[in-house]
Write a structure and sequence with these properties.
With 294 residues, the protein is of the alpha/beta class. β9 and β10 form a beta hairpin. The strands form two sheets. It has a six-stranded mixed beta sheet with strand order 6-7-8-3-9-10. The protein has a four-stranded antiparallel beta sheet with strand order 2-1-4-5, with helices on one face. The protein contains nine helices and ten strands. 33% of the residues are buried.
Length: 294
């Protein structure tokens, strides 16, 4: 759960309790306001706003093409927004991302590390890139924690899918980030390893207070890890709330049913749009169901 935004009240040299508390109010670690992105006139993300606090895990969910990857790319500063702002750790990512990139990291099993380098070489490269002190000690600790020891000297291109997922997470944790963006962090892991990995992430967050933004298609994972859920459809956030709130609001028994409900609403809207376009086309059926006049 999110860490408290206010420190315990204390007397500090004549400063009032209220003033002392106000002085330590934390701003969101991630703050997104009216974010939009277009590609060749096509709006991929539109009017997206949300925040993630220190110690909070927020899920970004939606069907393929909903705008999740584009949103995450703008959070990382890899894409410039067409409109709106992204602030991470107080920095505007469009202008000053270099100030905070060393305190952020990203994991996705679908983004390959250099295939010809060994796992150890890849981790050393990223440790150097992030300026990690005592890099060899950090790599040994991660290798022990994530069970990488048996394939540290294996080329990354020769790893199994599950091994790549574990290495990707090790790379994401190499600099002990304050902000962690996770895309399918347990993809390709067997159920036992996936459960262990979720526990590891929970322990890391409890120890460091990291803010986590999670994209996942595993709804049980979302229910376990996430404080808030953002449901995206066609580039917009169409619903949001704690998992329990969304389940109750949609009258479902779990987040998988909520996800399917929202996704199928989108399918229904697309089918209705297609039917209207057919009705309006020359030779199409009119609204009354009859044939249009030639």
């Amino acid at each position: 759960m999110p860490l408290a935004r206010h420190a315990d009240r204390c007397h500090t040299g004549g400063v009032s309790d209220t003033a002392a508390s106000a002085a330590v109010i934390e701003v969101p670690v991630i703050e997104v306001v009216d974010l939009a992105k277009s590609f060749d006139g096509l709006r991929a993300v539109e009017d997206v706003s949300f925040s993630v606090d220190r110690g909070q895990t927020v899920a970004l969910l939606g069907a393929n093409g909903a705008g999740k990857t584009t949103t995450i790319s703008m959070l990382l500063g890899l894409l410039l927004p067409s409109a709106g702002t992204v602030r991470v750790l107080g920095a505007d990512m469009a202008r000053h991302r270099h100030r905070v990139l060393g305190r952020i990291n990203f994991s996705s099993p679908y983004v390959d590390l250099p295939r010809r380098l060994t796992v150890s070489q890849n981790l050393r490269f990223f440790a150097k890139l992030y300026g990690v002190p005592n890099a060899d000690d950090r790599i040994r600790a991660l290798a022990k924690d994530l069970g990488l020891g048996e394939f540290l000297d294996r080329r990354s291109g020769n790893l199994s899918s599950g091994q790549k997922t574990r290495v990707s997470l090790a790379k994401a944790l190499i600099n002990q980030p304050e902000v962690l963006l996770l895309d399918e962090p347990t993809a390709s892991l067997d159920p036992d390893m996936a459960d262990w990995m979720r526990g590891y992430l929970e322990a890391y967050q409890a120890r460091t207070g990291a803010a986590i933004l999670l994209a996942s298609h595993n709804m049980a994972e979302v229910e376990r890890l996430c404080d808030q859920v953002l449901m995206m459809r066609a580039g917009r956030i169409v619903d949001r709330g704690a998992p329990s709130e969304l389940i109750a609001r949609h009258g479902r028994v779990d987040m998988e049913q909520v996800f399917l409900t929202i996704a199928r609403q989108a399918d229904g809207a697309r089918q209705a749009d297609g039917a209207r376009q057919t009705d309006d086309a020359p030779g199409g059926t009119g609204r009354a169901g009859g044939r249009t006049a030639p």
